[in-house]
Amino acid sequence: MVTQGQVITCKAAVAWEPNKSLVIEDVQVAPPQAGEVRVKVLYTALCHTDAYTWSGKDPEGLFPCVLGHEAAGIVESVGEGVTEVQAGDHVIPCYQAECRECKFCKSGKTNLCGKVRAATGVGVMMNDRKSRFSINGKPIYHFMGTSTFSQYTVVHDVSVAKIDPAAPLEKVCLLGCGVPTGLGAVWNTAKVEPGSIVAVFGLGTVGLAVAEGAKAAGASRIIGIDIDSKKFDRAKNFGVTEFINPKEHEKPIQQVIVDLTDGGVDYSFECIGNVSVMRAALECCHKGWGTSVIVGVAASGQEISTRPFQLVTGRVWKGTAFGGFKSRSQVPTLVDKYLKKEIKVDEYITHNMTLTDINKAFDLMHDGECLRVVLDMFV
Ligand SMILES: NC(=O)c1ccc[n+]([C@@H]2O[C@H](COP(=O)([O-])OP(=O)(O)OC[C@H]3O[C@@H](n4cnc5c(N)ncnc54)[C@H](O)[C@@H]3O)[C@@H](O)[C@H]2O)c1
Ligand SMILES: N[C@@H](CCC(=O)N[C@@H](CSCO)C(=O)NCC(=O)O)C(=O)O
Ligand SMILES: [Zn+2]
Ligand SMILES: [Zn+2]
């Protein structure tokens, strides 16, 4: 059946209102305009950032919308002027765009890209500032420029990475967010050196990927901190060498870590989204050089604080988006690394479900055993 140039009606999970169950709807997906790509999404995973926006706490959360940003699929058709991908290409949608032309892309200092960010932050496409999703004429907002909880989605051409077709899409969908974020936080943002002592706060997918990245970087000690002690056994397989549960200590966790490490860690990573933990993660760093990287996303209205003296005395506070990876250039390389068994991906997938079960899948994410749930979009 020829779909190119036609409106496609397909199934999507629509968030009509914050915190109300997602509803599987028949949505109309318009053809891609100039500079746009329509993707058949075959597999999507759920990330805690989807749950955060769905909760209503994200200032950029607009409703009704189609959430989802960790996925893999096949290009169905492309709009005018799109040269880097074509129908049939295997791709990973990238919420962090890479145009290679804007001030950010050319700076050599960041992976952030300015080309489409203003549009993706308000749920529309850049060309006409409108959505390509609708239900019987009512527009439904995009999310993060990806909206992968739909069997078909439209993305900007700067927001899609072409990958090796040999890669299993049901696995490499994870390379759209959580795993690269953790690895890149270590390799690109912190640039952890061999022999470093590392603290990882939060042992979910992102924290475990930090541990994996730190192990690969040659860290000598990788201290995992989580309020759920059941996380430790699994975390050992990702490189965590020691475990601390803050609930089992009277002293503040930063003091516990400083005492255990002769003055503090070289690098720490906050992978939870809790501003009190962000403070602890900074303050457990070694005086003079310790660097703390904020990875977790905290809700609107939340603010970080510490004594400025912590920074005056040489600690460095940083943050990372998508682990500092340049998406279109580096996601294909991560896929290749996975194919060469140089990075884990399968190990982060604890559940496989279908699009129709998406609400159950979100419930599962609050279960301590769950890392990533991958949805098969066409079953
Ligand atoms: N910066 C980025 O580009 C980026 C990308 C992906 C995800 N994120 C964010 O990273 C965070 C982590 O994502 P995830 O999927 O790994 O989440 P997750 O919920 O699976 O993991 C969080 C872990 O933190 C633990 N935890 C909760 N409160 C704690 C506390 N007070 N002290 C210690 N441990 C605590 C939980 O038990 C859990 O194991 C989220 O905020 C997500 O939105 C950021
Ligand atoms: N709209 C949110 C922004 C949340 C946020 O920081 N997102 C991360 C990616 S999380 C992926 O799971 C990010 O990349 N930020 C950089 C950017 O959005 O350009 C809010 O305002 O809280
Ligand atoms: Zn994410
Ligand atoms: Zn750019």
Short characterization:
With 379 residues, the protein is an alpha/beta fold.
Give structural notes.
There is one protein chain. The chain starts with 7 loop residues before the first strand and ends with a strand. The chain has helices at residues 48-54, 103-107, 117-120, 169-172, 178-190, 205-216, 231-236, 253-260, 275-283, 309-312, 327-339, 358-364, and strands spanning 8-14, 23-29, 36-45, 70-78, 90-93, 133-135, 138-140, 152-156, 160-162, 197-201, 221-225, 242-244, 267-270, 291-294, 316-319, 349-354, 372-376. Strands 3, 4, 5, 8, 9, 16 and 17 form a seven-stranded mixed sheet that branches. It has a six-stranded parallel sheet with strand order 12-11-10-13-14-15, sandwiched between helices. The protein has a four-stranded antiparallel sheet with strand order 1-2-6-7, with no helix packed on it. It is globular. It is 24% helix and 23% strand. With 379 residues, it is of the alpha/beta class. The longest helix is centred in the middle third of the chain and has 13 residues, at 178-190. Strand 16 (349-354), helix 12 (358-364) and strand 17 (372-376) form a beta-alpha-beta unit. It binds nicotinamide-adenine-dinucleotide (NAD), the ligand N[C@@H](CCC(=O)N[C@@H](CSCO)C(=O)NCC(=O)O)C(=O)O and zinc ion (2 copies). Nicotinamide-adenine-dinucleotide is lined by residues 47-49, 52, 177-178, 181, 201-207, 225-228, 231, 246, 271-274, 277, 295-297, 320-322.
